[in-house]
Amino acid sequence: MSLTSVIVETTPFEGQKPGTSGLRKKVKVFMEKHYTENFIQCILNVLGDKVKGSTLIVGGDGRYFSKQAINIIIRLASANGVSKLVIGQLGLLSTPAVSSLIRRHNVLGGIVLTASHNPGGIRHDFGIKYNIENGGPAPDYVSDAVYEESKKITSYKTTPKLETDRLIDILGTYNFNVDGRDFVVEVIDSTADYVGLMKQIFDFPKLRTLIRGTEKRPPFNVLIDSMNGVTGVFVRKIFVEELGASPDNNVCRIVPLDNFGEIHPDPNLTYAKDLVDKVKANTSYDFGVAFDGDGDRNMIIGKNAFFVTPSDSLAVLANNLDCIPYFQKNGVHGFARSMPTAAAVDRVAEKLKKEMFEVPTGWKYFGNLMDAGRLSLCGEESFGTGSDHIREKDGIWAVLAWLSVIEHKNMSVEEILKEHWSIYGRNYFTRYDYEECESDAANQMMEHLENLIASPDLIGKTYTAHGKSYKISKVDNFSYVDPIDKSVAKNQGIRVLFEDGSRVIYRLSGTGSSGATIRIYIDSYEKKDVLADAQDMLKPLVRIALDISQLQKFTGLEKPTVIT
Ligand code: VG1
Ligand code: CO
Known about the structure:
alpha/beta, Alpha-D-Glucose-1,6-Bisphosphate, Chain A, domain 3, TATA-Binding Protein, 3 domains, 7-stranded antiparallel β-sheet, 18 helices, globular, binds alpha-D-glucose-1-phosphate-6-vanadate, binds cobalt (II) ion, magnesium, phosphoglucomutase (alpha-D-glucose-1,6-bisphosphate-dependent)
């Protein structure tokens, strides 16, 4: 039976502006009549003629409202001339899996339904992100165009009679005819493509012997925490079924829940405390890792919950990539990090004579460099690590990379870090997050900082706290020119740089769904004194960062909500 599309009149919604990584709002906002339809139609409008006859990948972290959103996407896509949607079963696909599928199927793009590390459930957040044909997050010019469309949209096209009920529950290919055109929904196994890719990149038999142990070596005891997010289905497949980890002792929270069990699926020391406590309590664990809701972030800890900062994780991997088959085959090109990420990897790049890039916060800024063959490995301090195998950060990839290094070096996590610091010195790093502050207060504080850095007296000024003094050598608001397409990203964070190389950086988050989140990043490099406690070491700089910004005065907040 042929179905007919209809045009539905609508009016614009305010604030459909994608942030650091897609549009994130409270679920109840996405539930408003026409809200989700408008945003999807705006994406399709921006794609223009390319939509006709195209294939798109659709899936996400399975959070509340995903199924409703997928039904809306199916109906709108069919009415707008898309030929085929490839959808993960039950709507489940991790962000890295979407990126991989876009690349392998060579399609126009993908729609990722996630608010990543933000909490889920009816009272919390939902999100929609568009990824382009290279598999990466839409660059700024696409997101800006979507936002412009959202301000003037007057109608959307949908196929209301297309029966979507339970369509994505069962694997299969479903054929429809809309306005005389064929339209196909293919429901695929969420993990198959991604698992295949991981098997090409890593030496699975070797990793299996690490986890299972051999006559000469006891099993390497891991604890993998999916935090009730989408990685659960991938963890079961890869670590339990392929690599022989125990479903009882080596994995936890691996059933995806649409509210993540009411936790923040955010792998850091505050929100992944459960994992940290378990690894501390059971000293037989050699390694622990947690992922975020959509599977692109990872937090790595060693025995006794020895914490690896993401900046160090990136540097260690950079230093050891040649033990991974993918890099043996493809070579290692450049490295990159987001600006606030500590510069540990820069030292590795220098030693290995690789190109090194510093980009604004957000994975979308790595894509062009990877496409141009100049970037193999990159990371962000926000627990993102990844390589050019796809165009998103990739939590499971990061674990497999770490396990490869551990297998190869036959050392513990702590030993690897200590060896690394003894060679390269150590970048002490901490980030203070003040979540859900009042937007006005946060904006005033940023304005104060803008004014401050505009004053010429600041350079050369010395700040002292806890007996340590730091002299300012440079201040700016970070801006970036993409080396490939020359596009410019401005206002990417206020930087206060000190003479000894220490830095304090201030940014407002672009992933929140209400209020504002202030992030302060602090780092400082030590060549010799590498074994101190990071919070002790950075205490003076933290004080100075608070003094310069007058954060307490503006926000009234005494303490950050999260320290990493
Ligand atoms: C945060 C992180 C950033 C990351 C982004 C998306 O952005 O700081 O490094 O790329 O989240 O990650 P912001 O603007 O809130 O600081 V994910 O895993 O939430 O898609
Ligand atoms: Co994420």
